[in-house]
Specification:
Length: 85
């Protein structure tokens, strides 16, 4: 509740943060010096960077597919022209 201090061990120091499960985000565990806004900001920056990288990879894959289709179309056009001569 409000005003309660974190649980402390026998030595009077804070107990270590609990281990994260596979479904928990590391952004949820904050050190004493991190604010929730700072951690969220860092997490958002990472997510935006990941999204940008995925978008770039998708754009490269699409451009490669367009290039391959154009090459196939050019090859099939060349082979048709060779039969007519």
């Amino acid at each position: 509740m409000a005003g309660e201090s974190p649980p402390r061990g026998r030595s009077g120091q804070e107990s270590p943060a609990p281990a994260l499960s596979e479904t928990e985000s590391p952004a949820l565990v904050l050190s004493e010096t991190e604010s929730p806004a700072l951690a969220l900001s860092q997490w958002l920056q990472l997510m935006l960077a990941e999204m940008a990288a995925r978008r770039e990879a998708l754009e490269r894959a699409r451009a490669e597919e367009v290039r391959r289709r154009a090459e196939r179309a050019a090859e099939s056009g060349d082979s048709r022209g060779a039969h007519l001569s």
